[in-house]
Amino acid sequence: MAPELAKLAQQRERLRYEKEEGMITFLCDAGALRPGLTHRTARDIFWMLTGGDVFRMLVRERGWSPQRYQNWLAKTLVHSLLTQARPSPKRLSSRPEARTR
Amino acid sequence: MAPELAKLAQQRERLRYEKEEGMITFLCDAGALRPGLTHRTARDIFWMLTGGDVFRMLVRERGWSPQRYQNWLAKTLVHSLLTQARPSPKRLSSRPEARTR
């Protein structure tokens, strides 16, 4: 990558990190963050998971469809950042393929 | 990055993906994978999380210590790939700040 492009990419990533602060603050103030997760850590993980690198790895390199990536990302963000308020994993686990048909 | 280096990096990543198959197969055969997670998806996620890009983002760009990254990675791999054999999330979530004071 040309140095000018690398610099642009870095700026874009910094901007993305800055723009995400409000959303994490909102979740934090609402008491929605996972127990023990700080604002800073939540922001770092959100920024990493939603970045272009993870998209590239799963979609371009491993052949996931964009829709599949999107579903995975949504579920992963919830599990990684938020307090757990979903049905017990046990209940979901008994018929793993039932919902995809 | 020079084309030769990019090609080497791609080869290294392919090799890494190939080498990880045995470990995922072991987990799969042992019934340790999360319900609903296929061998292929588990392998893709393992490969993505353990790659150099995630390390670079968290350690070099966001300033995590290698030890902190390692602890996070271990916990994240367990949560992402394995059947849950930890205390009920309900018990942990009722007092979000109690453990950090």
Q: How many strand segments of chain A? A: 0
Secondary-structure class of chain A? mainly alpha
Helix content range of chain A:
55-70%
Beginning-to-end CA distance, first to last residue of chain A? 43 Å
Mean pLDDT of chain A, as a whole number?
86
| Main sheet summary of chain A | none
Briefly say what this structure is.
Chain A is an all-alpha fold and 101 residues long. Helices cover 67% and strands 0% of the residues of chain A. Chain A is flat and about 45 Å long.
Task: Map the helices and strands.
Two copies of one chain form a homodimer.
Chain A: H1 3-19, H2 21-29, H3 39-49, H4 52-61, H5 66-81, H6 89-93
Could you characterize the architecture of this molecule?
The structure is a homodimer of 101-residue chains. With 101 residues, chain A is mainly α. The first copy, chain A, has a domain of 46 residues. Chain A has 6 helices and no strands. The longest helix of chain A has 17 residues. Chain A is flat and about 45 Å long.
